[in-house]
User: Fold these one by one.
Assistant:
Number 1:
Amino acid sequence: MLDDKRLLGELKQGNNEALRQIYMEYKDNLLTIAASLLHDPWAAEDVLHDVFVSFAAGVRGFKIRGTLKNYLIASVVNRARDVFRRKKHHLIELDEAGPIAADSGDPQWSAAFSEDARLLTDALGQLPPDQRETIILHLTGGMKFREIARMQGISISTVQGRYRYGLEKLRAILKDG
């Protein structure tokens, strides 16, 4: 893991290499979160780039309270929520968006992973947005329930309930599918 505070200090001094290092460290995880929330890889890339443009523009006044990773995740989630609200009536179907596949040297693994990713993406898309977001933040974002609760402005027990009910629904969807 990068030394975020040192990199932020360098970035505030105008070191663009620090921004590149931060971007390279977090981009894959943030893109996965955005794509999981939006089910649109192009919109997810736009969200990621918008977040980093805003981050770079406002970094001089930025004070880190938690971790940089959680700040960036919260920024991606908030931006994804905005995109989702704007595009609510124009969302593309999950099968049109296609799955986000990992690049692997093994074609069999890639094919199996792509199919599993498609099934999981389809199942996640059937969950209520609050449950989907909680599951993605916890599993993909690596955030603790306490951090999710703080970010969403809800109680920890509500986060735990959303997570538990969301997993139960996912299991039922995947079992029936």
Number 2:
Amino acid sequence: MPIMKPLVYTTKCFHAIGIITALVFCSPVGLAADSIFTPFIGSSYGEKDTEKVTTLGASLAAMAGGVFGFEIDFARTAKAPSNAVFVENSRSTTAMGNLIIGVPIKGVRPYVVGGMGWMKTEVSTGSLSKKSDGLALAVGGGVMGFFSDHVGARFDLRYTRAVSIGESIRDVVFEAPAFWRASWGLALRF
């Protein structure tokens, strides 16, 4: 029977570790988290007096305690009618992961946002189509306001720019396109 004791001891340890793990991961979190889904419409434009291009998209954000959070943002511009920010007959698609810092003040939450992700630019000239994609950075801010516990509005202003990395991580090259996006949308909190 001395051979069985280590096996029983090991089995009891695995059970104890399993119970402790379940208690840790299944216990309620004391810090409330807001999840906010925002479908939006807006305009993308460059510096100076460039023509605005309609932009549609959606974002999904999770805010821990209403202050710190993470957001996934997806946006796509309509085809550019002229050579303003984008090349004529071009459009841009972005998918970004952003950090958010916000301050909830009586139903209104101003915030700053910044992150990086992927940008794809498509140019159509006649029968030719050219696509390019790569890394992009975005920074900005905005404000969310809620009319009830679950429904509100969100205004957002962001600057997005394509970047590339050279031979080392310190060789960051800022590239075109670079544009501003002003958007407003319905904020749905759950």
Number 3:
Amino acid sequence: MLDYLLDDIPVRGRKARAVSAEVVRELDETDLGVLVAEEKGSTPSPIKRISERHHALARQLAAGTTVSEAALICGYDISRVSILQADPTFKELVEFYRQDITRETRGLHERMYGLSMEAAAVLSERLEEESEKISVGQLIEVLKMGADRTGFGPQSTSTNLNVNVDLANRLEEARKRVKERRYAPVIEGDKNG
């Protein structure tokens, strides 16, 4: 009914052209097999140059940041991050940073283990040779820490306590008392009235 008005409204882009089609032949099962086997959709062009933003995004994803957070942090659209994740070059970059993080974590773990073993050896040596220089309080702290780290530390339990103070009824009674006092008859000579 209003189609004639739509033709007069200016729109952006090119004007639509008339589409024509003709049947060349009927489709059969072999055509369906060809359709299923062929790649569909468009494939994005591979990354030509890896920028600092690509590196930053790869580091975020390798560290376990969600796609939406990484996109926000690095200034990408979520759909662009999805496209980049399908790119072999970008996949390789993320894997590089993932291995780098694993290597750093392993190195830190090894250093902490070494320091702990060294401290335990020094402490053990001092206990044997200079036990009188170590106070009872220090020994108890070492014992607590060792027990805690090996699963024999103190257990904590939590208790939930629900107290029903019937606040609504108490408030209602207080309002009644105030109302009664407000409208109570005033007796002459009463100091409160």
